[in-house]
């Protein structure tokens, strides 16, 4: 009986040791090789405690002044090596953008599938990498995030 208990405890400890940690700064690389929104990479800052994740995403919205706007992430959850959260962008008619990402085996890259959001119609891609002038809801986009230093 003791041997079985020890085996179970070791298995649980091994799973806990392999837990993925998404905490840190990540630079999102936009779809089709763009560096994110106009004006530079979008920076994602995450703090993970257990399976809950909080943080901010810096989205450059004002192309004229290149001023970053930090948006809080909502509903951040980790299950295994997958992370999901959403953000709201815009003020008059906020749009929900959902991020679902999987950590690479090396732990230095997350591949996100980004859905929702809104094309600006004014030539500035949204955080989801929508094509300028697309209007309405953006389709699913694959976006990579690399650990920032």
Q: Please write the CATH class name.
A: Mainly Beta
- Biggest beta sheet attributes: 8 strands, antiparallel, barrel
Oligomer: single chain
Structural class, judged by helices and strands?
mainly beta
List the main descriptive attributes of the protein structure presented here:
149 residues; 1 helix; mainly beta; Lipocalin; eight-stranded antiparallel barrel
Short description:
With 149 residues, the chain is mainly β. The protein has one helix at 2-17, and strands at residues 24-29, 42-49, 52-62, 67-72, 74-79, 82-89, 95-103, 109-116, 138-147. The protein is elongated, with a radius of gyration of 18 Å.
Protein model, in words:
This protein is mainly β and 149 residues long. It is 11% helix and 48% strand. The protein contains one helix and nine strands; from the N terminus they run H-E-E-E-E-E-E-E-E-E. It has an eight-stranded antiparallel beta barrel with strand order 1-2-3-5-6-7-8-9. Strand 2 (42-49) and strand 3 (52-62) form a beta hairpin. The longest helix is centred in the first third of the chain and has 16 residues, at 2-17.
Task: Present the secondary structure layout.
Elements: H1 2-17, E1 24-29, E2 42-49, E3 52-62, E4 67-72, E5 74-79, E6 82-89, E7 95-103, E8 109-116, E9 138-147
Antiparallel strand pairs: 1-2, 1-9, 2-3, 3-4, 3-5, 5-6, 6-7, 7-8, 8-9
């Amino acid at each position: 009986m003791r041997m079985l208990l020890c085996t179970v405890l070791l298995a649980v400890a091994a799973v806990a040791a392999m837990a993925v940690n998404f905490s840190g700064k990540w630079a999102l690389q936009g779809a089709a090789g763009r560096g994110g929104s106009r004006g530079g990479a979008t920076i994602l800052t995450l703090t993970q405690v257990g399976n809950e994740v909080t943080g901010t995403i810096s989205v450059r919205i004002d192309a004229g002044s290149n001023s970053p706007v930090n948006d809080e992430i909502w509903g951040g959850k980790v299950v295994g090596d997958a992370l999901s959260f959403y953000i709201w962008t815009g003020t008059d008619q906020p749009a929900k953008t959902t991020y679902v990402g999987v950590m690479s085996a090396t732990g230095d890259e997350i591949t996100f599938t980004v859905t929702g959001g809104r094309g600006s119609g004014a030539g500035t891609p949204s955080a989801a990498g929508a094509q300028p002038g697309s209007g309405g809801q953006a389709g699913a986009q694959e976006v990579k995030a690399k650990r920032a230093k």
